[in-house]
Amino acid sequence: MDGTPVTVASVGEVGPDTVALELETPAGFDALPGQFVLLRAAPEDEEIARHYTLSSPTVGETFELTVGIDPEGDLSPWLAGLEGGETVHVEGPFGRITYDDDGDVVAAAGGPGVGAGVAVAEAAHEAGHDATVIYQADEPAHTDRLEALSDAGATVVFIDDGAAEELADAIATHHEDGQVYAFGFDDFVTAVADAIEAAGGDPDDALIENFG
C-alpha cells in the first residue's frame, strides 16, 4: 500500500455522524491548518483512498482528521469503528490554502469544512489574533471547540443549512474582519465568494478550498 504507515491513536465522536481520527505523527511530517492528506486503508482487504483535511491547529506527536460518516460509504464507517492501535497509510500534506500565524482570520465552513475552519481559527487565536468562524450546518460538529473559542473571545456564527440570506449577511458583516478562508463543497464556497462580492469585497482575495 502506498503512503506512510501511521498508527491510529484514538477515534472520538465530535458530532452527529462525525468522528475525529487522531493519528500518530510520522517522522518528517509537518503540516499547517488548511492542508489535507490522502488516507489509504484496506477494509475487507480492498484498498480505498480518501482526502481528509487536518482539523488540528498544530502538528505535534499526533494530528487530527475529521471524518464525516456516510452510513453507505466504503471507508468512513470503518474508520469510525476503529478503537486505536490500527494502522492506516497517509500521503501528504497537500494544499496551498494554509494559515501560518499571519493575522486575523474569518473562517467560513460548510458541513465537513468545519474541521479545517476550527483549526484555522484556533491557530489564529493561539497566535494572539482575532478569529471569526461562520459555520453552516444543520447538525454542527466540534461544538465544544467552537464554544471554547467563543468563550475565549472569538466570534462564532452558526447558520442553518440552506439559509442563504443568513450566510450572505454573516459574510457581509465579517468579511473585512480578517483574511477570509472558506472550506466546503462547491455550492457553499461559491455562495461565500458571491456574498463577498455583493458586499463590495474582492472574492479573489479569499483563500478557498473547494471540496468538489
From TrEMBL:
Q: Mind telling me which PANTHER family this protein's record contains? A: NADH OXIDOREDUCTASE HCR, PROTEIN RFBI
Residue stretches in coiled coil: none
InterPro entries named in the record: Cbr1-like_FAD-bd_dom (IPR008333), FAD-bd_FR_type (IPR017927), FNR_nucleotide-bd (IPR039261), MRET (IPR050415), Riboflavin_synthase-like_b-brl (IPR017938), TrpB-like_PALP_sf (IPR036052)
Instruction: Using the record's annotation, list all stretches that form the FAD-binding FR-type domain.
Output: 1-100
User: This protein is called what?
Assistant: Flavodoxin reductase family protein
**Origin, by domain of life?**
Archaea
**Molecular function, one GO term:** oxidoreductase activity
